């Protein structure tokens, strides 16, 4: 009988849940934790000693040689940040640090501060040197923030490791970024993954999806907020305005094979209206979505309808 090991820990500013079923489950879970800690040390924008922060500290001064994995993720992030209609911008660091929504010291910056910081968020000024794996930020005060991509990249690395191990199944949940691997205990082999109800306490699901060897990434404006007077500010910042995104969408879930694709498209699309999101996703290969609007009405892309429960 395969072992089942369940572990919960706090990393990357969120709660992480790991479940592994298999003959080497305990060993696999321990290795998973070490991998998560290793990549957090590489990608964190909240740890001054991380590899990413070396780039940010050298902004406007000199280029920084980095590991191939960090270089590749920044390169991928810049590519998607440069798209005209994208709400993903990995150069958004200065604005994230100023608002601090979800962290101690959160505040609403002045209009003047936001306008000043917007000038420091141009992804074109992230200079990539592929031959040396070096990154240079052209302006002082520029900061890369990989919060929109890192969890997906890390999840995919962990799944690559799982594929080499003698395990039956695994569920990895990095604070709303879920991946299911292998066969579930259900007769059909599919896992049941719930999508959080936006206005109910945690673990209350509005929609459930059947999934197998897939990533389910959800981004929602209810996750981290700042209340000032009667105004509620959420943590998803519009890189074009410097303020929280104004949208009829409260939750966007992307279902994909690669978790990093889920991260990319939840961020690229969060800011568009429901109709636009569905239209774009229906044209993407291997990408599906579930959208919840402010009335808690559920919309989906065409191909995912058969997987809803």
UniProtKB/TrEMBL annotation:
It holds the Pfam family ApbE. Its cofactor is Mg(2+); Mn(2+). It is an enzyme of class 2 (transferase). Mg(2+) binds at residues 148, 267. Its EC number is 2.7.1.180. Gene3D superfamilies: ApbE-like domains. SUPFAM superfamilies: ApbE-like (SSF143631). The keyword Lyase does not apply. It comes from the Bacteria. Transmembrane segments: none annotated. Keywords: FAD, Flavoprotein, Magnesium, Metal-binding, Transferase. It catalyses: L-threonyl-[protein] + FAD = FMN-L-threonyl-[protein] + AMP + H(+). Magnesium. Can also use manganese. PANTHER family: FAD:PROTEIN FMN TRANSFERASE, THIAMINE BIOSYNTHESIS LIPOPROTEIN APBE. Belongs to the ApbE family. This is FAD:protein FMN transferase. It comes from Vagococcus martis.
């Amino acid at each position: 009988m395969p072992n089942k090991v369940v572990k919960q820990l706090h990393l990357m500013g969120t709660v992480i849940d790991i479940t592994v079923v298999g003959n080497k489950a305990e060993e696999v879970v321990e290795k998973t934790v070490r991998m998560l800690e290793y990549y957090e040390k590489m990608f964190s924008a909240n740890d001054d000693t991380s590899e990413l922060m070396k780039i940010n500290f050298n902004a406007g001064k000199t280029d920084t040689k980095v590991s191939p994995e960090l270089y590749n993720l920044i390169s991928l992030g810049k590519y998607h940040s440069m798209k005209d209609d994208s709400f993903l911008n990995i150069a958004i660091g200065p604005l994230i640090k100023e608002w601090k929504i979800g962290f101690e010291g959160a505040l609403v910056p002045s209009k003047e501060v936001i306008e000043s910081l917007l000038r420091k968020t141009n992804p074109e000024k992230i200079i990539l040197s592929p031959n040396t794996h070096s990154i240079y930020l052209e302006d002082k005060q520029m900061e890369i923030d990989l919060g929109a991509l890192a969890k997906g990249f890390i999840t995919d690395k962990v799944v690559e490791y799982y594929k080499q191990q003698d395990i039956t199944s695994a569920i990895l949940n990095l604070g709303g970024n879920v991946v299911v691997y292998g066969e579930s205990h259900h007769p059909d082999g599919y896992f049941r993954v719930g999508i959080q109800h936006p206005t109910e306490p945690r673990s209350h699901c509005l929609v459930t999806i059947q999934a197998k060897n897939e990533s389910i990434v959800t981004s929602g404006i209810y996750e981290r907020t700042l209340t000032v007077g009667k105004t509620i500010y959420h943590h998803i910042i519009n890189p074009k305005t410097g303020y929280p995104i104004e949208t009829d969408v409260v939750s966007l879930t992307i279902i994909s094979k690669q978790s990093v694709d889920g991260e990319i498209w939840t961020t690229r699309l969060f800011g568009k209206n429901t109709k636009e999101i569905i239209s774009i996703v229906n044209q993407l290969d291997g990408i599906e979505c579930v959208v919840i609007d402010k009335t808690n009405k559920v919309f989906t892309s065409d191909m995912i309808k058969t997987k809803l429960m």
